[in-house]
Structures are given as C-alpha cells and as structure tokens.
Amino acid sequence: MGTATLRVVSLIATVFVLMAFVVENGSGSRILAIFPSPANSHQIVFRAIVKGLLERGHHVTMMGTDPIETDNPNITQIDWSFAHKIIVENIDVAKLRQENCKTLTISKQLLHVTEMFVRAEMNHPDVQQLIRNAGDEQFDVLIVEYFQMTPFFAFAELFNVPMIGVTSIDSISQAHEVVGNVVNPVIHPEISHKFSVNLNFFQRIDALLTKIFIDHILFPGEFAKYDEIIEQNFGSNMSKSYELMNRVDFLMTNVEPAMGFIRPIVPQAIQLGFLHIEPPKPLPTDLQQYLDRSRHGVIYFSLGTLIRSSSVNAKNTKIFLDAFKSLKYDQDLLAHSNVKLFVTQGGQQSMEEAVDRHVPMVVIPFNFDQFGNGDKVVERGIGKSIWMERLTTDGLRQAILEVIENKKYKRNIERLGKLIRDQPMRPVDKAVWWTEYVIRHQGASHYRYKPAQMPAWQYHYYDVVAFLLAVTALLIAALGYAVRRFYRFLAGHRWFSTQVKQKAL
Ligand SMILES: *[C@@H]1O[C@H](CO)[C@@H](O)[C@H](O)[C@H]1NC(C)=O
Ligand SMILES: *[C@@H]1O[C@H](CO)[C@@H](O)[C@H](O)[C@H]1NC(C)=O
C-alpha cells in the first residue's frame, strides 16, 4: 500500500472513530424536561439534572416552576413560577396538620390544588404554542416528574419520544407498580402514612385499605379530570391517563438505598438520591466569623422550604423557643464544623444535606414522607424523631441533648455519609448517563418487566390459590362425607352394633 492510500485509510478510520465518538457520546441531544410541582425541594433536584445535561452539551427545553439562571444558550425555559402562588393562596398543609386535619382531607385538598396548577401550567401560551407547532419541533427524549400528573406525559406521545419518569423523593406506589417494582402495601406503605416499618395488624389493614382506596376510588377520579385536560389540550386521539402512565420507559427515583429506602426494583428503574448535593461553598464572612467564634457550637434549625414560619402555631413556636432558650448552644442556620445538630422537619433534601455534612438530626415530622424519613433517621442511628403533635419543650430539649452528647449519632452519620459517597459516579452523572442511554437505544424496552402488566389476581396467583383451596376444601368435605357414610354403614350392620353394645355394657 502506498502512503497516499494509507493516509486515506487512516483518514477514514479517524472519521469513523470521530463518528463513533459522537454517537457514543449522545451529546447535543434535544431533551424536553417538564417539572410541574411548585415546590422548591422538588425543583432543586430537577435543576441539578438539567444542569448536568447542559454540561454534557445537550439542548434542554424546560418547563418548570423555578427557572435556572444561566447564560447557556442551550436551554429554552418556559417559566411556570406563577404556580407557587396557586399553592400559597390555596393551601397551607402545615397549618391544616396542626389543626389535626385528617390525612385524607389534606390529600384531597392537595389533589384539588394540583389540578388547579396543572390546568394553569398547561394554559401557558408557550406550552400551547409548543403543542400547536409540534410538527416543527423535534426531541429525543422526555424527562418528566412522574407522579399522577398525566397530562404532561402526553408530550411523549405528541413528540413520539421515550419517556423518563423522575421524582425528587420516593415515588407513589402506582409508579412503582407500572414498572414492576415491589409495591406490597404492608411492607412499603404509601408515603402519606405515619407508619413506615414493622406495621402491626391494624396498620397492615389500614395500609391495604388505603391502597385499594387510592387505586380504585381516588386515582380513577383524578384521572377522569386529567383525561378531560388531555382531551382539551391534545385532542380526542391522545392516549388517556392510564395508558400514558404505562408509557414510561425508565424510572429514576431520588432515594438512596443506604438511607433505608430499600425495595426490590427492576432493571428499568434506578434509585439515585443526593442529586442536589454539591460540595460546600465558602460562607459569607460574617456568618463564617459568627460560627468560628461560637464556643459551644451551633444548632441549625430549619423547617424546610414548604412550611412557612407563619404556619407554625403559637403553641409549637413557644415550644421551640423555650427548648432552645434553655440550651447553651447558639442557634442559627448553616453547615460548619461547629454545627452540632440539625433540627429539621425531615424533608428528604434536608436529611440528605445533613448526612452529606455529617450533622446528626432531631426530626420533627409534619406531613407526607417526613414520618417515614424520621423512622429512617432513628433506624440508622443518626438522630431522633419526635412527631409535631407530640412535641413538648422537655421532650425536644432531651432529644437535642441526647443527640449532641451521645457521640454514637455523630459516628453513625459520618459512617453513613462516607458510605453514600462511595459510588462509581456522582448521582447526577448517573442520571445523565441513563438519560443518554435511553436516547441511544430509543427507550429501554429490553429491560421491561412484562409481568408488571398482568392483572393483579394473576400476578399474585390468587386464582391458583383460590382453586387449590377450593379443591382442598372439596376433598376434605368428600372425605368427611365418606367417613360418615362408612360409620353409618357399620352402625347399620348387626354384628358391629352388638359388639359396640356389648363393649358399652
Ligand atoms: C451548546 O451545545 C453545543 C452542542 O450542541 C455545544 O458544542 C456547546 O458547547 C454548548 N454550549 C454550552 C455553553 O454548553
Ligand atoms: C383521529 O384519528 C383518526 C384516524 O387516524 C383521524 O381520522 C382523525 O382525524 C383524528 N382526529 C383528530 C381530532 O385528530
């Protein structure tokens, strides 16, 4: 071969290698991202994923309630920040909870407000324009917050792209059920329950009835409303809620198993957790000095982003103030080697921050997953949990002193923090890698767990068990009948009856 030929061959080889690299990279993909929940603790997680995707050179069209401040030209944002106002004006969950409002009542109100903001978000002119001009747009994948807000899933069908469901906390049972993750309600009760582990008999009944109620009454009602929204916005040919729920190609839940979120999951789903955690940034000087100077250390007290301080009632405010006043520790907000303890409502993102910074916790759960999170903190030995409704000044004071003074909590949380950092890649890189994987293979149907679509009675082989029980019952009945007949036959026999009579004498 001449040098010229060699050069051509090597040039072609280079081109192929380059092409392979580009394809392999999956970079420069067009991603549609939809995050409808107007809650900072949700959006902070989703923004981390979007930033990760932008860093890889992808183009992202994002609908969200908390737009990203960036001069990156590769992101187009539809600003839904007005949706926060819909929540603030229509519901105050913390207040309802302190008024001892029932979980079901709160859930129903929350679902009502959800429907309100879903309608408002769909009506945004930019969203309407995207739907009208769908023919001119092209995407490679849809990433969407995967709860029950099905109208947004319709964009996957509209653009004919794979759909990745993500959640900022653990997902609802229905989401797990769709892909085939284990959803056994007495082992993994819905996160709205106050109990999360070692359910007693009555809690198990409660958990099962709740699941039946959600699956057969609550959600069908919600889905009927969402079907109407889907039809209004996408026309009558668009699939309806149940089909759209089932359309999910890949599920990413933001829970870290080492924190105690352990459940058998299928290959079509992954658990992440700690998505929003970034390395600590330097503190503002005044705060840094304040923390450096603190002699006894600092307690960081925060009830998260969803609970407004105005919604903590007078009784509970007094408990907090009295408990903190009686301690020698200063109180303030932040992470620093002088921070001894984190008093938190037990939101998952707060918990993750504490674990990452090795600060043990006293959890005061209010709602939703916070009770379960509190249980996990206790179970992992990284703090204590006191339900808001059982809070007393003395109880809070003792819990604080115990967690600060007993060094086992600090040791446990250091160990857990290190365990969680020990992974092949950062959670956000994992989310990005799997997104590119789904793009490269146009879904992940090769991972689909088909039995997930079987009817429940078949999947749990209720029919087989019922049949075998029926056969067994029949056999026993038949045997009983035969024995009775045989006895009567013998009794009717003269010889036998005389024998019996003689014995009886
Ligand atoms: C925008 O995307 C292109 C590829 O689509 C990439 O080359 C470029 O670096 C990206 N810009 C930024 C600021 O990330
Ligand atoms: C629905 O689909 C049918 C068949 O593909 C088509 O004829 C009809 O025009 C569609 N209707 C709408 C409202 O898009």
UniProtKB/TrEMBL annotation:
Protein name: Glucosyl/glucuronosyl transferase
Transmembrane feature ranges: 459-483
UniProt-listed SUPFAM superfamilies: UDP-Glycosyltransferase/glycogen phosphorylase (SSF53756)
Organism in which the protein naturally occurs: Culex quinquefasciatus
One Gene Ontology term of the molecular function aspect: UDP-glycosyltransferase activity
Pfam families reported for this sequence: UDPGT
Keywords linked to the UniProt accession: Glycosyltransferase, Membrane, Signal, Transferase, Transmembrane, Transmembrane helix
Range of residues in the leader sequence: 1-28
Entry's family note: Belongs to the UDP-glycosyltransferase family.
Phylogenetic placement of the source organism: Eukaryota, Metazoa, Ecdysozoa, Arthropoda, Hexapoda
InterPro entries for this protein: UDP-glycosyltransferase, UDP_glucos_trans
